[in-house]
Structure formats: structure tokens, C-alpha cells
Amino acid sequence: MDSSRLEHFRQLLLAELRLHARHVGDDQAAAIDAADDGAKESADLSLRDVIGELALKLGERESQMVADIDQALLRMDEGGYGICVRCSKPIDERRLEALPTARYDAVCQAAIEDANGSGTHHTL
Q: Would the pTM of this model clear 0.90, i.e. be above it?
């Protein structure tokens, strides 16, 4: 995935993070904006701090969503974003548009859901 597409998905993830932050207060959203505008290395540290604080203030479901965003941003920083963590194949960009935190491609997601007996398939 080229750098412009990665930046596009980074902005999608940060936008979703800002939505969750607004549930807690505008201070958290402003901190995310400041971290996004800062130098890359210091911004990553600041963003990690903001994400950690945000997760503590949210309910369980929203905290999990924030953790998923954090993991996606971490995969992005480490060069693994958009690659299925199960089979190492690229995740279709349509799936990432719909679910920017996706860790698995559609085939692996379906296999995991079948194994867990959930029967819900996300085939994007």
C-alpha cells in the first residue's frame, strides 16, 4: 500500500478516534488533533498517551473500539497495516474503507467466525 493510501486510512482511524473522544470531552479530541499535527515521533507518544487515557474514560465497548484503533495505528507504524495477521495476505481496501481497524481479510474473518460459531460474516 502506498504512502498516500496509508495516510488516508490513518486519517480515517483518527477521525473515528475523535468521535469516541468527543463522548468524553473536547479536551480529548483536541489532544488527538495536537498529536496528529505534531512531529511523528513525539506525536506517536502523545497519541498513545491520549488513547490510553481515553480508554480509561469510556465504557467497555467503546474502550475496545479505541483499543482496536490503537492496534491499527500500531500496525501502520510497524508496516503491517492492511495485511491479514492470520494469513499475511493483503486485506482488500474496500474492507478497510468499511472497517479501517480490520486485522483479517474476509476469508480469515469468516473462518474465525465459523470456528467461534457466530455465523456472522463480514465479507467486505
A: no
Cα separation, 20 vs 31, in Å, equals 13
Q: Which three cell numbers stand for residue 72?
A: 491499527
Q: Which residue has the cell 487515557?
A: 53
Dist CA 5 CA 121 (whole Å): 26
What would the pLDDT profile of 41-92 be if each residue is shown by its tens digit? 444 557 767 776 766 666 667 778 888 999 999 999 999 999 999 999 999 9
Q: Which helix (H) or strand (E) holds 33?
A: helix 26-37
Beta bridge partners of 90: 83
Q: What is the rounded distance in angstroms from the CA atom of residue 79 to the CA atom of residue 72?
A: 10
Report whether 82 contacts 93 (CB < 8 A): yes
The DSSP output letter for 38 is S
Contact 84, 90 (CB under 8 A): yes
